[in-house]
Each structure stands twice: as C-alpha cells, then as structure tokens.
Design a protein that fits this description.
Elements lengths: L2 H29 L5 H29 L2 H17 L7 H14 L3 H15 L4 H26 L2 H18 L5 H4 L7 H12 L2 H15 L2 H13 L4 H25 L5 H21 L3 H8 L2 H19 L5 H30 L1 H6 L2 H14 L6
Helix pairs in contact: 1-2, 1-5, 1-6, 1-7, 1-11, 2-4, 2-16, 3-4, 3-5, 3-7, 5-15, 5-16, 6-7, 6-12, 10-15, 10-16, 10-18, 11-12, 11-16, 12-15, 13-14, 13-15, 13-18, 15-16
Length: about 375
C-alpha cells in the first residue's frame, strides 16, 4: 500500500465513525438512552470541552514522546475499550462520565490523521484533496448506513455501528504505515511541546488564522448537534434524514477531490471570505424558511462554509509552518476550532433550540460575521 492509499484509507475509516458520532450521538442519547435534549446537550458539551483540552495538550505531548503511528494505535485501542463501557449503563451521571473519558481519547484521532497528512505533504508530493475526499466518502457511507439502521432498528443502531467503526479504525492503523510516521521524535521532553506552543501563540499571523478558523468552524455547532433532531421535528423519516445530511458530504467529496487544482491560485484569505459569506447565507436561509426543501438546498453551501475554511487552514499549516510545529498546530486547530468553540456554543445553542429550533441556526452568524470582518481587516497586513 503506497502512502497516498494509506492516507486515503485512514481518512475513510476515521470519518466513518465521525459521521456517526457528530450528527447522531445526541440522537442516540435521547432516543436510546432516554435523555432529554437539554440533558444530552450537557453531556455533549462536557465531551466537547474535554475534547478541546485533550487535543490541545495530550496529542502534542504524546507525539513529542512517541511516533505519530504509535500514538494513533494506542488511541484506537483505548477508544474501543471506552466504547464498550457504554453498553451496561443507563444512568445520566455514568453516561456523562463515560462520554468525558471517551472524549479524552477518541477525538485525538482527528489531529492524528490530519497531522499525518500534513507531515506527508511536507516530505513528498501527495494530493491532499484526493485523500481527504475519502474522509468525506466515509462520512457519507456512515450517514447512509445509520439512516438505514435507525429506520430498521431505531436509535440503538447508532451505537453498534459506532462500535464497528472503531474496530475498523484499529484494522486500518495496523496496515503498512509510512516510514516517516514511524519516526520517533528526536527530542523527547516536554520543553519541545511547550516551546512549540509558545512560538505559535506568539505568532500574530498564526493566531489570526486560528481565530478565523475557530469562528468559521464554530458556526456549524447547531448543525452538528441538532441537525438530526431538527429534521426529526420536521417529521422526516430516519432513513431520509441520512440522505439529506449526505447532501453536504457529497459536496465535500467533489470539492476535496478537485480542491488542489481548483484552489491552487486562490489566496487563503479569499477562501476564508467565501467561507464566511457562504456560512452566513446558509444559516439565514434555515432560519427564514424552516422546511425540509430549504434545508436540503442549504446543504449545498457546506462545500463553502466548511470545505473552503478547512482547506485554507490546512494549506496554511502545511506551507507556512515548520515540520516540527505541525503536530502542535494541528492539535491547536482541532482543539479550538473543532472542539472548544463547539463546546462553548453547545450550551447557548441548546437553550435557543428549546425556545425555537430555527433560532439556534441563526445564532451561528455571531461567528461568521466577525470572521468575515477579521479576514478583511488583516489579509493585507499578514499577506495570506
């Protein structure tokens, strides 16, 4: 298996589970475990908070002591153990504890696979978009399978498919790994990680990019946490919900497959501007027209709201930073943009959803508009 195929395979296996965990876990907690939306939101929010600090601290520290390959294998095995521990429990407090522990470990697979990609990109010519599109394919397959599974076996199918997905990840991690990812770090002490944190936190250019990324990715919080429940409230069958959610991911697949050539000459700031505008339009449409057809149409904007923002950040990390800084930067991006901001916004979004479901989506423009203004204000000064 060559390095391009290895990366594609690992993107597929991870995002298959991510396509279950992100959109459906709240639905599993409410449907199979019998929790209220507010109680499930607290559990999800606690998990997101844990994830943000875990990917920020544990992943960079672990990759400073061990090869990224060793770290990924350990994460996958521990994730399986924690997932199995969900089986016998129904108690809110125990489910909260397990979710916190699971969120301490499992989400580190994301900076792991993205970090693997950026390291490989820095050392050889790979098509990032091509491999990343397999992640979107994995996400798509998950949505279809879960949609079919929940229509036949109710919400309990969500859990068993997630468990099977983690087993699939373990299998992928024990395939032939690129040699560069097996390389042990040269300096094996905590000062290296601390040094990288300090350098990145004192880099105004990196902080601007990080803040913009955090705002743009955070604007998807209501969609990730409540998209499944929102469509249920509209009276849509579970199988069709899976298909509807897939519209966004199918767009992702096409986008990432052509992103390297399509966006080759586009500046990072221009990508962020498009992402901010597309995201604002997306959530305003869902608010103004609360029906399934507009929701489906808004899914097409996911390519811009998520795809452009993510691709821009990955390009910045892989092209503007040193190889030794990539795992730390990737951990920070995953921590703040994919976890912490979602955790912080889950609580107000959950409150807004209880008041009015569509308002929870409109509230996300509190992230997109500042992201747009910040990009416009800084793009020339920092030349990105």
């Amino acid at each position: 298996m060559n390095n391009q195929r290895w990366l594609s395979f690992n993107y597929f296996t991870f995002f298959f589970t991510w396509g279950i965990f992100m959109p459906y876990w709240t639905g599993w907690l409410t449907g199979d475990k019998g929790l209220s939306v507010s109680a499930a939101s607290i559990i999800i929010g606690a998990g997101l908070l844990t994830r943000s600090f875990s990917t920020l601290i544990l992943f960079p520290v672990a990759t400073n002591r061990f090869s990224i390959s060793t770290v990924m294998k350990g994460i996958a095995l521990l994730s399986l153990v924690l997932m199995i521990s969900y089986i016998p429990f129904e108690s809110y407090s125990v489910l909260l504890l397990i979710t916190v522990l699971f969120s301490l470990i499992y989400p580190n697979l994301m900076p792991g696979v993205e970090g693997s990609a950026t390291i490989l990109l820095a050392h050889e010519k790979l098509d990032y978009g091509k491999s990343r599109s397999f992640g979107s394919i994995g996400y798509t397959v998950a949505l279809i399978v879960v949609g079919l599974g929940t229509s036949l076996f109710q919400e309990k199918a969500i859990y068993w498919l997630m468990l099977a997905g983690i087993v699939f990840i373990i299998f992928s991690q024990f395939q032939a790994t690129p040699l560069i990812l097996k390389t042990e770090p040269k300096i094996q002490n905590s000062n290296t990680s601390i040094g990288n944190f300090k350098k990145l936190f004192t880099s105004k250019e990196f902080l601007i990019i990080l803040i913009i990324s955090v705002l743009l990715q955070g604007s998807h919080t209501s969609y990730y946490n409540y998209g499944f429940i929102y469509l249920q409230d509209l009276g849509i069958n579970s199988f069709y919900i899976g298909l509807i959610l897939n519209v966004a991911v199918l767009g992702e697949i096409l986008f990432f497959a052509k992103a390297d050539s399509f966006l080759a000459n586009m500046k990072i700031s221009t990508m962020y501007i498009w992402a901010a505008i597309g995201s604002t339009l997306r959530w305003v449409l869902v608010f103004l027209f609360p029906n399934v057809f507009v929701f489906i149409g808004s899914q097409l904007l996911h390519v811009i709201s998520f795809g452009y923002a993510h691709y821009a950040t990955i390009q910045f990390i892989s092209k503007r930073l040193k190889t030794s800084q990539i795992p730390t930067a990737q951990g920070m991006y995953t921590s703040f943009a994919m976890s912490l901001i979602n955790a912080l916004l889950t609580f107000p979004a959950g409150f807004l959803y209880e008041v009015s479901a569509k308002t929870a989506f409109l509230g996300m423009i509190a992230c997109t508009i500042p992201a747009l203004l910040l990009t416009l204000a800084t793009k020339r000064k920092y030349n990105y």
